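Entry:
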Amino acid sequence: QVQLVESGGGLVQAGGSLRLSCATSGRTFNTYSMGWFRQAPGKEREFVATITWSVGSRSYADSVKGRFTISRDSAKNTVYLQMNSLKPEDTAVYYCNLSPRTGLEVWGQGTLVTVSS
């Protein structure tokens, strides 16, 4: 059973930076990719960024390109999201996601990011 634990959320002023972490535990050898999604109040959950575990290929939502960077530390089974030039519209609960090669995807519990104007 794989578990994901996010950390690093908080309150930051517009233009500031935060780094989110997502630590995995359990059987992670089946991981295809890991990513970040977010859900703002009253809105649906949306894709932010993803990275393939073996090769490290990255993809980003247009809204965060050039500002956010996803990375992974395979030795620590951890994925990160460096968020720079934060905007109030980035305010959301950020969820870590693990997509396995087989089986069901796994979600973390979420971490709140609040960007004040």
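The mean pLDDT is 95.
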